[in-house]
Design goal:
Elements (H helix, E strand, L loop, with lengths): L12 E7 L2 E8 L2 E8 L5 E6 L4 E7 L7 E14 L5 E12 L2 E11 H10 L11 E3 L2 E6 L8 E9 L1 E3 L2 E3 L5 E10 L9 H4 L8 H10 L8 E2 L7 H11 L5 H12 L11 E3 L1 H10 L8 E3 L4 H17 L2 H9 L1 E3 L7 E3 H21 L30 E2 H21 L8 H8 L1 H11 L5 E4 L1 H15 L4 H7 L4 E4 L2 E2 L5 E2 L2 E2 L2 H7 L4 H12 L7 E2 L2 E2 L2 E2 L5 H6 L10 E2 H15 L6 H20 L8 E7 L2 E6 L13 E2 L16
Antiparallel strand pairs: 1-2, 2-3, 3-4, 4-5, 5-8, 6-7, 7-14, 8-13, 9-10, 10-11, 11-14, 12-13, 15-32, 16-17, 18-19, 20-23, 21-22, 23-24, 25-28, 26-27, 29-30, 30-31
Length: 664
């Protein structure tokens, strides 16, 4: 039976937001952290995600003839339940109503969020985690232990208005169904970071971003996003920590870095994602094993080269020497090998060795075959981690042109500072001494391999044809093109080393982590800042990809309905804004280049400001109507391949990334 709400009365964190057809309500207090999602429209559902174990419960209903509309009448309040064996389950109680003549249960899934994601995306989940429905009067109940007998999951609907007949809830005479929703998980709660532990007084006064970051921040780790990624992701952690670093408390930065270091493998690779709780149980059993030790995914390649520059930024540019040494000396409990621990400095050096080993072949012989490629058999390996994100390329631009040389520069800086001396073996010193020369080899040779230059006449024809197919105007793009060739960096190189000619937003990485020449800044910043579909700029923000110069087959895969297609990712705009600010702080650029950068900065911030309402979302799509681009929440369209997270870690970085005073 559920206990009363906790005696503290007001939860530490409680907020709501509506995004498209999703009504979201978040609560965090003590051992409870939960995200309630009520989906309106033709395919209604109830879903509750818990950061504890990345667990969740979801109830999908059959498609309805007329769109259903949810209303939250009582916000989620923390409760503690007892399962059938008296063990605690931590969850929420809320009251909601929906305008629909009836709702018929289609499927319930109570397990790890990764299985809920699978059911939402492809309609499948492991049959062994299925939960039977119990219907008693006006009560529908799902409850089950984890597969290994550990405390599991519960979802209870008490129909306050309407009636239950088997798996169908029929509305009351007024046409409304009113429900009490009780949901809980038995997985181990995380320890939340409070706002004073998280942010310093330089953080922007942005309640939406503060709420989202607050919900996603824990002493054990930062969560990538809710509801779909309520757990650790290496890349998301590192990029968010780097962009937020000026406004984070040292303990928060160290929590993020410590989570990454805790998940390194023996070779020093950064873990991309972890599989927790029942997901781990299922994975181990499928592989002939047992237990619930987290599974760690090392399939990505970009995060391996992010750790060094982010760690160097904190240790050398933000922390004072004594606290930096104290952090490096502190034992980090291993998530990769539970029950063991090692000093943070020792773990970091292991990653730096890996970087040097991976970078050495190209530094010694700079040819395409020696670039860092996606792992064999995979189509993904960096932040564009949907199957089509890199245009089916093998060698990503961001990894090879930006992150590898940035990591080598960081190794050189850390070695010269002496912070790592206590953790270096004799062989390390000679290897680390080569880092500066290796960085220069990569920096001078790798970016040129991705350079694409299309004659203006050819580019104009492609832009005109693509604009007609996409239903957007070509005139602003053509006017910005001029007579010079359209030159940009390809998103990737294919298996044969040919550039995949997609204009892309990854130039922001080069501005944040590198020091491009004035000529390169003029060319490549100019390329992405042109109006779409010559560049990436629209009324609703900076798109992450533009396939106008690629073939029609590629264009068909890069649409406003594709996860990494012609869509806007909030953090990519913040990345470019932070990169432009960094470049404008340089003192070696000519006035003309600075003027162009300042103009790009102003135009970017105008677009960011125009979409402030969705700024904390993961991404959004668009439609063109009435002579302008308009925001469409990603996941709202029938053809959208997925849906956006309402709270996304790297979309909170505007707490630190702010417009210049002249634009506020």
């Amino acid at each position: 039976m559920a206990s009363p709400p906790q005696a503290s009365g007001t939860p530490e964190l409680s907020y709501q937001l509506t995004e498209g057809q999703n009504l979201n309500a978040f609560v965090r207090d003590g051992q409870v952290a939960a995200h309630l999602l009520l989906r309106s429209g033709a395919d209604p559902r109830i879903l509750v995600a818990f950061p504890a174990g990345n667990s969740g419960v979801g109830l999908w209903f059959d498609r309805v003839a007329a769109p259903a509309s949810w209303r939250l009448e009582r916000t989620p309040e923390p409760v503690t339940l007892a399962d059938g064996r008296g063990r605690p389950l931590y969850g929420i109680r809320a009251t909601a109503s929906v305008t629909a003549p009836r709702l018929t249960v289609k499927q319930a899934v109570l397990s790890n969020v990764r299985f809920l994601r699978d059911y939402q995306a492809i309609g499948k989940f492991p049959p062994e985690v299925a939960a039977p429905m119990r219907s008693e009067g006006n009560r529908i109940l799902y409850a089950r232990d984890r597969l290994d007998g550990a405390p599991g999951y519960q979802l209870e609907l008490n129909v306050l208005e309407g009636r239950v007949d088997g798996g169908t809830i029929t509305a009351a005479p007024g046409g409304r169904i009113r429900l009490e929703i009780v949901a809980a998980s038995g997985d181990t709660p995380l320890t939340g970071l409070t706002l004073p532990e998280l942010l310093n007084d330089r953080a922007a006064d942005d309640p939406a971003a503060r709420d989202a970051l607050h919900f996603l921040s824990y002493r054990e780790k930062f969560l990538a996003g809710s509801w779909r990624f309520d757990t650790y992701f290496g890349r998301d952690t590192l990029m968010s920590v780097r962009l937020l670093m000026p406004v984070l408390q040292p303990a928060a930065v160290e929590a993020g870095l410590g989570a990454v270091l805790a998940r390194l493998n023996d070779q020093g690779e950064v873990a991309h994602e972890e599989g927790l709780s029942e997901f781990a149980v299922v994975e181990h059993r499928r592989n002939g094993g047992s237990g619930d030790v987290p599974t760690l995914d090392y399939a990505m390649i970009d995060d391996d080269f992010m750790l060094a520059p982010v760690a160097a930024s904190y240790l050398l540019d933000h922390a004072k020497p004594d606290p930096a040494r104290a952090f490096l000396a502190r034992d980090v409990p291993s998530a990769a090998k539970p029950g063991t621990a090692e000093p943070a400095g020792k773990a970091l050096v292991r990653n730096l060795r890996y970087v040097l080993d991976q970078a050495r072949p190209f530094a010694d012989a700079p040819k395409i075959a020696n670039l860092v490629s996606l792992k064999r058999g995979r189509m993904t390996g960096e932040w564009r981690d949907s199957e089509e994100g890199l245009g089916r390329g093998r060698y990503p631009f961001d990894v090879n042109a930006v992150f590898v040389p940035a990591a080598l520069d960081a190794i050189d800086r850390l070695a010269r500072a002496g912070l790592l001396d206590a953790y270096l073996a004799a062989d390390d010193r000679a290897a680390f001494a080569r880092a500066r020369g290796m960085a220069e080899a990569w920096r001078s040779r790798a970016p040129a391999l991705f350079r694409v230059s299309v004659p203006a006449v050819t580019a104009a024809a492609s832009i005109r044809d693509y604009a007609a197919r996409a239903g957007v105007p070509a005139r602003p793009a053509l006017a910005a093109l001029g007579s010079a060739p359209l030159t940009f960096h390809a998103i990737s190189l294919d298996e044969k080393g040919a550039p995949v000619p997609i204009v892309n937003s990854d130039e922001g990485f080069a501005l944040l982590f590198g020091d491009p020449s004035a000529a390169d800044l003029d060319t490549f910043v100019g390329a992405i800042m042109r109006p779409f579909p010559a560049g990436l700029m629209t009324d609703v923000g900076l798109l992450v990809a533009n396939p106008a110069l690629a073939g029609s087959e590629v264009q068909a895969r890069f649409t406003p309905a594709a996860y990494h297609g012609t869509v806007v990712w909030s953090w990519q705009q913040a990345l470019l804004a932070a990169g432009l600010e960094r470049q404008l702080a340089r003192r070696d650029l000519p006035a003309a280049t600075r003027t162009r950068l300042a103009d790009a900065q102003a135009r970017l911030w105008r677009a960011i400001s125009a979409t402030r309402a969705v700024q904390s979302s993961e991404l959004w799509s668009w439609t063109y109507e009435g002579g302008r681009y308009r925001v469409v929440p990603f996941g709202a369209g029938k053809q959208d391949v997925d849906e956006s997270n309402a709270a996304q870690l790297w979309s909170t970085v505007y707490l630190a990334v702010r417009p210049p005073a002249s634009l506020r």
